[in-house]
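ligand=MU-OXO-diiron
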Amino acid sequence: MNTSLKAVKISEKIYWVGAVDWSMRNFHGYETSRGTSYNAYLILDEKVTLIDTVKAPFKDELLKRIASVVNPAKIDIIVSSHVEPDHSSALPFVVEYARNAEIITSQPNGLKGLTARYGHLNYKPVKAGDSISIGERTLQFLPTPMLHWPDSMVTFCPEEKIIFSNDAFGQHLATSMRFDDENDLNTTLFEAKKYYANILMPFGKQALTALSALGGHEIKMIATGHGVIWRKNIDTILDCYSEWASGDVKDRAVIVFDSMWGSTEIIAQTITEAFAKRGIPAAYYDIKSTPMSDIVTDVFTSKYLAVGSPTINNQMMPTIAAFLCYLKGLRPQNHKAFAFGSYGWGGQSVGLVEEELKAAGMEIILDKIRLANVPNYAQLNEITDHILKIDSEAEK
Ligand code: FEO
């Protein structure tokens, strides 16, 4: 075990004791190009309290950081905000030291989830509005079901004005510096948006409810479950969450395609240029070159989406099928879309793409663009003409 691992003081008698996962690159399909962290917090009050644990392979890092300020056996209370194993799977190892610790979890779903995974431990289930005194401080519990699991919960400490937010407001971002003002803000906000798009997008309504519940509190710090802690740019991240949860989209187009021999690629280029000519910024993604999690981050706030695939064995390309499956699960809102692609003979792919776009809840604003073999100049000009009229056609 690395003996240089230390707790990081974030407030008087409150410490970050989590772990940094510098090498994580895939979080069940979400490409985490900047790694992540699993944040846990230790409060040294009359009752020593640990808020969350870490992913099990990082248990030694957690225990070492705790031990740098207090013997782990002295932990009286463990708050488990979320059952997902990146936050809870080190719990049984902590309990081996803190044998009498009371484990606070949401009722009923946190209790069910923890019991299913770790058996019968010393649980104390709480519900909305419950609070406990840990000495000089109080902890108030606010379950946030489906943000993003049924058991999810945040904890507010009114004396410190700190909200321990778990997944909410987090970012998959490995960094040696714990606070927002010690890191590049644009990078942190991009990762926060990517996190929201890939994990929280289906739960905008729940996010708005949680935000309104927080509205009554003065907040000095948002101690997240992943990435950096917000202390300087709290209003900025709260405003971003309000905007993201609202489902608002901007005048921007995202073009996503795969191509076999370059013809669908030529159509994608034409569509991209046409949007730009129309004055609408457009992003061009060859699905083979960009992770899906980055593409959906862009789709999330873009009004237009064009998806292209050639036909292979009467189907769309498996890469595009996977992208559309992933996107559909995230329940995107307020997008206008169309399908395109080239083909040799059958040409079924474009219709299949369009059906998936409809199934994802998108408004189809242009007839399928299906071109046989290699697109010619006249056909590409016709596509450009359609794109140039797209807003006026869509608004009729
Ligand atoms: Fe960070 Fe839903 O776990």
